[in-house]
Design a protein that fits this description.
three-stranded mixed beta sheet; 62% helix; disordered C terminus; hydrolase
Length: 589
């Protein structure tokens, strides 16, 4: 769903660099397939990690980084993909509830456009998957092994522990400098050797810590996916795929200089564990194939990218598997939608639904096909095709009727909620949309998408003050406190602002001003200084302190002329940026 307000132009420098540090723990998953009758509780880690980064602070840092990531044009803000990843991820978390930790983290899984085979864990339970990895996974168990591995990083608090280790390691070069100063009196060459040796030891300790963290995440991930009922063989299969993809990388760097263990070592370790477990076969759910087809189209929407995707999908249509045919037809529907061929998109979607519902051929051996969230994905896409045709009243009327039925059938699907509300607004029923959205906000207060849609409904109704208040709420939820305050100022000046609305504006303004002062105090104090390093945004250094401060106060990058703009314009939405990516699984780049 497109944001209703202007698009972010830059990362705040501190968050960008904190993210780059957090991503250093991205690592290949370990394949596994086990049903464990008993596994020990995950260990409670020592005081070093707590002193460096408490679980509560770790979550706050993760939320701050995620606010920035959500505005990266490579962030795949696609409801079906996000819902699928969170459905799979929460199945894994539910198998081992203790992975939520003492802070009881709510895990969030998301996808970014990147052809690299990689995934990464941010502080506090946020786990990202590259689209390239999603497409490379051939089974759901392979993908589950990646997510389990990253859950292992989060639950073992490897980022906090690394910061604790860094504080200890910082004393090594200092001690080496003292010894070098003493040795310099008699032998200058020896003094230089002592100093360089101290620095090398500190670096080697960090590399050793990284390799140990990966092994630990492999073992924890193996346990998690096994208990969740996935084939642990999937971890080995994906490691082997990873080994083929990164062979040229890893051959260039000696093992003792790599941040990850050798892939062959990891394969051997997991294979040894698998031999101790009974074999279990798992049939992949249909939603896995549909989501991969969708991700393939969305990964590259350029003309060349869509042409290459079409060729791939047409080859897939010739496969004998019903999974492959249905997902290829679904991918063709998304492809036609991206080309604004709505009739073609609906035709391919109908074909996909017919293939899924078709019974097996007489005499063929076939077990029931698990669907997962496949039906809600198809319902979302059907709405998506219709809502995109807002200039056709008859189509919008059908979309409203279909959206109401889909929401009744899949009440927990957030994507369907947003599409239904969008259909009501575009179909000329903003009052009904307002009532629906207000009901949703009673249950889902932290969804900026609902506030975006509510602002559009108010705009259609001519309620300018309420429109700006809703936009302010959306900005605040996304971390743009200054932009939210600007929207409140516009709401205050609106001619239709009632006494009640003025009171709401005053209350929210006091709350957000206090929040802004608190955030600024944290930045001046200790804050997350342990993660801050120097860097640049979009290849350009910050011009001066004022610019950097303005970006942190207003992460939406809106200049005064853009604040209050209700729809993105060329002037207010041309700021695209790229987030730093994690190192490839099993190697460094």
């Amino acid at each position: 769903m497109n944001r209703y307000h202007s698009i972010v132009k830059t990362f705040p420098r501190r968050s960008l660099l904190a993210l780059s540090c957090a991503l250093l723990f991205a690592a290949p998953l370990a394949p596994a397939q086990v049903v464990l009758t008993h596994t020990p509780n995950l260990p409670s880690l020592g005081d070093t990690s707590r002193e460096a980064l408490s679980p509560i602070t770790e979550r706050k840092l993760g939320e701050e980084i995620m606010r920035d990531i959500r505005f990266d044009h490579d962030y795949l803000d696609d409801p079906p993909i996000i819902e699928y990843l969170n459905s799979l991820g929460n199945t894994l978390v539910s198998a081992r509830p203790d992975v939520r930790g003492e802070a009881n983290y709510d895990y969030f899984f998301f996808c970014v456009r990147d052809p690299m085979l990689n995934a990464f864990a941010l502080p506090g339970g946020f786990i990202g998957v590259h689209s390239g990895l999603l497409l490379a996974a051939q089974t759901e168990s392979e993908l589950a092994s990646v997510l389990s591995h990253e859950i292992g990083h989060v639950t073992q608090r490897h980022i906090a522990r690394q910061l604790g280790e860094q504080k200890t390691d910082a004393l090594i070069p200092l001690a080496a400098m003292v010894l070098a100063a003493l040795a310099a009196k008699s032998n200058p060459d020896a003094a230089m050797g002592v100093m360089m040796g101290g620095q090398g030891l500190a670096i080697q300790r960090q590399l050793n810590f990284g390799r140990d963290a990966e092994r630990e995440a492999d073992r924890i991930g193996f346990q998690i996916m096994g208990q969740a009922g996935y084939e642990t063989n999937g971890m080995v299969a994906f490691f082997q795929r990873l080994q083929s993809a990164t062979r040229n990388y890893s051959d260039l760097v000696p093992a003792y200089l790599q941040s990850h263990p050798l892939t062959t070592e990891r394969i051997a370790d997991i294979q040894a564990r698998i031999r101790e477990q009974p074999y279990r076969q798992r049939v992949d759910a249909l939603d896995f194939f549909l989501v991969r087809a969708r991700a393939r189209v969305l990964q590259d929407t350029s003309s060349k990218g869509l042409a290459e995707t079409e060729e791939f999908l047409r080859n897939q249509l010739a496969q004998p598997s019903r999974h492959q045919i249905a997902s290829a037809q679904y991918g063709m529907a998304i492809l036609a939608l991206k080309r604004h061929d709505y009739a073609g998109a609906q035709s391919w979607l109908d074909k996909s639904a017919a293939t899924i519902g078709r019974p097996p051929a007489p005499g063929a051996f076939s077990s029931p096909l698990p669907k997962g969230i496949a039906e809600s994905v198809l319902a979302y896409t059907s709405l998506e095709i219709k809502v995109d045709q807002e200039n056709k009243p008859e189509v919008m009327a059908l979309a409203i009727k279909e959206g109401e039925a889909a929401h009744a059938k899949f009440p927990l699907s957030r994507g369907i909620v947003w599409q239904y509300a969008d259909a009501l607004i575009k179909g000329g029923k903003p009052e009904q949309a307002e009532r629906f959205l207000r009901d949703q906000l009673q249950m889902y207060r932290s969804e900026p998408e609902l506030q975006d849609l509510l602002a559009q409904a108010y705009s259609k109704m001519g309620k300018i003050a309420l429109q700006h208040i809703a936009l302010a709420e959306s900005y605040a939820l996304l971390g743009g406190t200054q932009a939210a305050l600007d929207q409140l100022e516009l709401a205050r000046k609106a001619r239709d602002a009632s006494f009640y609305e003025q009171a709401v504006i005053d209350a929210r303004e006091r709350e957000w001003q206090a929040k802004r002062r608190e955030a600024m105090g944290e930045k001046k104090g200790a804050g997350f200084s342990g993660l801050a390093v120097t860097g640049s945004v979009n290849g350009k250094d910050a011009k001066d302190g004022k610019e950097a401060k303005a970006r942190e106060d207003d992460p939406f990058g809106t200049d005064p002329a853009c604040r209050g703009v209700l729809a993105s314009s060329p002037r207010c939405s041309d700021g695209r940026f790229g987030a730093p990516r994690a190192t490839p699984w099993g190697s460094q780049r």
